[in-house]
# Entry
Amino acid sequence: MGWVGVGAGVLALAFAGYLIAFVLRQPEGPGKMPEIARAIRDGAGAFLGREFRSLTIFMIAMFIVITLLIKPGELSLMSGVAYVLGTVTSAIAAYVGMSIATRANVRTAHAASSSYAVALRIAISSGAVMSFCVVGLGILGIAGMVLISDDAKTWLSFAFGASSVALFLRVGGGIFTKSADVGADLVGKVEVGIPEDDPRNPAVIADNVGDNVGDIAGMGSDLYESYVSAIAASMVLGLTSAYGDAAVSLPLALGAVGILASMIAIMTIRPPEVTGSHEEQVQQAHRTMNRAVHLANGLAIVMSLGVTWLLVDDLAPFYALLGGLICGAAIGFVTEYYTSERKPVKDIAAAAETGSATVIIEGLAVGLVSTVGPVLLVVVATVSAYYFAGLYGIAIASMGMLVTLGAVLAMDCYGPVVDNAAGIAEMAGLGTKVRERCEALDAVGNTTAAIGKGFAIASAALSALAWLATFFEVARVDNVSLTDVRVIAGLLLGAMLPFLFAALAMRAVGDGAFSVVKEVRRQFKEIPGLLEGTAKADYVKCVDIVTRSALRAMLVPGLIVVLTPVVIGVIPALGLQALAGLLTGALLSGFLLAVMMANAGGAWDNAKKYIEAGHHGGKGSAAHKAAVTGDTVGDPFKDTAGPSLNILIKLIGKVAVILAPLFLWLASG
# Structure
């Protein structure tokens, strides 16, 4: 079955190549447009280059650790090589996806000047480049590991490599994007009163760069990790399942049919031309993307049913997979309810009429109550999966949530492209009609981004649960008791970690934004004619400030994630029992906190946009100013701290699994 995975990976990458050719054939547009796009592209490339240099040092260190310690007493060079390959393939996916996104934004803006349908198709195609690079390189890499070695540690090491990239790009990218965004808004919109994406704002390019490094490269690496992790965990648990070798082959086969289903769905996207109102354009974009995702899910269900029956001659794993797929789709609906223009968002907008404090209170309440639905759905999916196929079923359920990632991630990565397109339209002075068309596409992008974050968090929870099950298997921990003080200590420490991690991420955004605010104020003060529009801002300076701030700030959170399970595992008084408690506690509190922060942030964002559309006084009103405060607080909630918790709950599980043989060796004396 390894060759099936290789074939599916090659097919996905070929399709990504076809989409790249389509995007690059489109014209960039005249005047300032190519220049603005080049500034965004150069800034994003500079950030990614610095990230990769830091990642290389980390990768070399981890290669040495894995080679020496994954099998105490002997070298494990193959596992070390697999780790490096996992890191490199994830980095390539992030680089290619972001590179095309920074070329598609200007082409989308130019297309919007004449055709709504072409602009929409370019943006979705660009997002699909990222998604098919993720699934293509992911399944190609893990299938290659299966063909090279039948040692499960090799497969797990490849998945661990993917985690390293996600740690750097999700956490570092999240800090970058929101430091720039918050800093730009605080001076531009609040202090000076100029529009968003105004070229006079020195932080405007850094803000647009952040959309790409956070929501393209960061999100892509996050879901690459979840995708590879789900396949690897399913294969490892399949080794001890009742289905024999077929259980190891099934995850790769499911990944292959998911790629095929997603490809067919993307190829059917042919949006009609819409010349009507803002609402009609928004609704058509929603229909276009929903139709593609629903088609991908329907095809995947049918094909997965056949593949499961052929390979294992039992539909129990299919039922587990179906539960995961339904859970993912349902969480998308729940997230959309709490973050789109429905009652929760409208309640926050109404609260803005009484000031910033009530906006914050109402937004926090929305975020807190929004955890109920996702938790209930994950509980049902987990229990039903275990009922049908045991621990193996839980891993297959996580596969079910990610099986159509090729379609789902494309819709999420569409958002930053149209957001950048709207910014380029503003900076290049393309006129009100083009800006409104781009804003209609961007309004859909806000919702798809919120749904994508909810999907990423839920898939992280199921993937982390699968890795927790893998830890029990690899570490030979049969059960844990809540009367064991080591387990209780581990639970408390694990539950605390997400709060510490989120606090560090939030503070990093605050510090970075403060540096941006100082620089923007300085330029407005010291560059004659900047505010009047007769002089040009120094965009590069703000990009450099935020890049250095993000790389510096992510160091401590990254070390906490990697070192905490190591410290717990090697302390004799704690050991494997406490480590099991640590993983469980981090999963529980991390999942809840991530959902709350992501949904509260998304709701604050769309409440502000709801007011800007003309409700409660519209732009410039007191309610609008209060909503801007809520949105500013929500930015690091939804784009930095919340999504970064995905990495925490998955990565500590991987560290525990990878080093479990070392902990066992130490425990034996």
Remarks:
- The two ends are 40 Å apart (CA to CA).
- The chain has 20 helices and no strands.
- The mean pLDDT is 88.
- The longest helix spans residues 432-474.
